[in-house]
């Protein structure tokens, strides 16, 4: 039975204690381990915090207030609740590429709530699919160079950004950084790997929206 206690993300977290929700999840899983995945999704429906910093790691569940990474939140919940589900088991679930975590679309939507379901789709198309598109274009550029007998170089990623978004990765990151305030990891270059996973996802979503704007003839 799916509960209907869906909550949306809030900004004021001063009076909210995550331990209550996490403790409830642990009790649910320990009491009915067969439905542990559904219990996690129902807990996600109740979770109101869009962003946390835990042990120095930024957990940005709702990118740009629009794109919801439910797997990141599920990881945070399962890691914290110390349930009897082995880490390898839930890591395998979260690593699956299935769009709705192995659930039917309607069941997933009922479990997490309509708004979080829609935000999940925004993450899927704006981050997951966009990353796949970028890799595909990068590989096609490399294949074209090889087929034409040209020497391989490290410029395929930069060229892919130029083709898709109209500028180099470094220049795009500078604009993104100015707009969002996110900075690269200290001591690293502006290349791939210079940023945390959270900022990489945020950057990818920003690139997706930029590409949509560039492809809109009305703009």
Brief write-up:
Helix content is 59%, strand content 5%. By secondary structure, it is mainly alpha-helical.
Description:
By secondary structure, the chain is mainly alpha-helical. The protein has two domains: 18-112, no CATH class; 120-215, no CATH class. 59% of the residues lie in helices and 5% in strands. It has helices at 18-31, 36-46, 70-81, 87-95, 105-112, 114-147, 156-165, 169-180, 197-215; strands at residues 51-54, 57-60, 62-63, 67-68. The strands form two sheets. Strands 1-2 form a two-stranded antiparallel ribbon. Strands 3-4 form a two-stranded antiparallel ribbon. α1 (18-31) runs antiparallel to α2 (36-46) and α3 (70-81) runs antiparallel to α4.
Structural class: mainly alpha
> How many strand segments?
4
What is the N-to-C succession of helices and strands? HHEEEEHHHHHHH
Provide the spatial order of strands within the biggest beta sheet.
1-2
Distance between the termini: 46 Å
Strand content of the residues, in percent? 5-15%
Number of domains: 2
Taking the sheet with the most strands, its summary is:
2 strands, antiparallel
Helix content: 55-70%
Indicate the radius of gyration in whole angstroms. 20 Å
Shape: elongated
- The average pLDDT is 85
Compute the number of helices.
9
Low-confidence stretches: 1-5, 185-189
């Amino acid at each position: 039975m799916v509960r209907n206690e869906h909550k949306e993300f809030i900004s004021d977290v001063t009076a909210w204690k995550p331990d209550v929700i996490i403790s409830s999840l642990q009790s649910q899983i320990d009491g009915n381990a067969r439905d542990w995945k559904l219990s996690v999704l129902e807990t996600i429906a109740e979770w109101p915090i869009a962003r946390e910093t835990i042990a120095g790691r930024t957990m940005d569940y709702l990118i740009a207030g629009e794109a919801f990474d439910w797997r990141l939140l599920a990881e945070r919940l399962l890691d914290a609740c110390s349930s009897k589900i082995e880490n390898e088991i839930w890591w395998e679930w979260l690593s699956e590429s299935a769009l709705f975590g192995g659930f039917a679309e309607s069941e997933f939507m009922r479990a997490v709530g309509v708004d979080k379901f829609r935000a999940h789709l925004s993450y899927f198309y704006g981050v997951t699919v966009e990353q796949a598109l970028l890799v595909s274009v990068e590989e096609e550029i490399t294949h074209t160079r090889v087929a034409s007998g040209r020497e391989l170089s490290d410029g395929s990623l930069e060229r892919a950004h130029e083709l898709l978004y109209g500028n180099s990765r470094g220049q795009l990151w500078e604009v993104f950084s100015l707009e969002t305030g996110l900075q690269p990891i200290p001591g690293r270059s502006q290349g791939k790997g210079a940023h945390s996973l959270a900022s990489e996802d945020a950057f990818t979503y920003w690139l997706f929206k930029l590409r949509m704007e560039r492809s809109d003839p009305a703009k």
